[in-house]
Amino acid sequence: MRDPAFPHRHLLGIEGLSPLEISHLLDLSNRYVAFNRGPDKNSDVLHGRTIVNLFFENSTRTRTSFELAAKRLGADVINMQVETSSVAKGETLIDTAVTLNAMHPDVLVVRHPDSGAVKLLADKVNCAVVNGGDGSHEHPTQALLDALTIRRRRGRLSGLLVAICGDVLHSRVARSNFHLLLTMGARVRIIAPRTLIPTAVERLGVEVFTDMTAGLKDVDIVMMLRVQNERMRGSFIPSVREYFRFFGLDRAKLAQAKPDALIMHPGPMNRGTEIDSDVADDFERSAIREQVELGVAVRMAVLEVLAGNNAAHNSAGAAGGGK
Asked: What are residue 286's DSSP bridge partners?
């Protein structure tokens, strides 16, 4: 049966989702947090279903998190090794989609270096597709787990002032968080060097700062971003040392935020580049480890909802003669 509170077949991004749809996923995710902390972490919710992880980029947290989420729900999991697959031999993305489609998976989790590639795959397969990150476009489950972390710590999203700091230009995490936080009623500031600020980003409804001292003033949440050197073509920062001096989070800069401001980072962290170890390891204020934990719960919720919606879609198609 299709989930009436989240009727979508795929999760390709946060943009376009309603507050009720986002809240539904967060509520279901929150129930899985307690489940994951219990002694028995086995469920048969997705028994007999097949989840395929197809990652064209290296990943530790996201791929492992999806794999663990699927296994805890009782699904069969296949992790495709792209570097040893036919893709490495020159197979096109559409050929890969046709091949996977013939295997009848229920959910396909895809990470790809090109923006829009996951949408292309979703248009060519008969299963549900989850965007595990596509280029600099979106990373929806990261934004959901960030939102769940904030909501559990602060009890709400609406009315909070969130600063997203660092390499915004290349960050799919930032884009998904913009859409989610603004949709849920939060205020969003971005703080970055001018070279790492997207063109016309103010049109999304965010406030733009190029000075950490001013940008962090009275914020509730400080979300740091990794400097993505692998996506940079040219010189965006003068040096790591100078970047940390002006845009790395340390105690002095954090003092501008509210005394109980929450510290977040999607990982992996470049300690000494975008964040100081003393701040990252502050167990009272840092929620970085909690973000990793809650990622499993969020991905369990997403897989459950989309697998159910996919089954309903295919049943309706079969009843209608495949139309």
From this structure: 263
Closest CA to 185 of 139, 226, 220, 213: 220
State which H helix or E strand residue 274 sits in: none
- Using a 10 angstrom Cβ sphere, with 0-12 exposed, 13-18 middle and 19 or more buried, the burial of residue 176 is buried
Q: Among positive and negative, which fits the CA dihedral 209, 225, 171, 302? A: negative
Residue 151's nearest CA partner among 297, 257, 12 is: 297
Enter the pTM of the model.
0.93
Q: How far is residue 287's CA from residue 280's CA, in Å, rounded to a whole number? A: 9
Q: Which pLDDT tens digit goes with each residue over 157-197? A: 999 999 999 999 999 999 999 999 999 999 999 999 999 99
**Per-residue tokens: 7:** 């009727």
Pick from 43, 95, 39: nearest CA to 69: 43
- Determine contact, residues 147/26, Cβ cutoff 8 Å: yes
Q: What radius of gyration do the chain's Cα atoms show?
A: 20
Residue 122 to residue 116: CA distance in whole angstroms: 10
Strand, helix or coil at 131? strand
**Mean pLDDT throughout 143-147?**
98
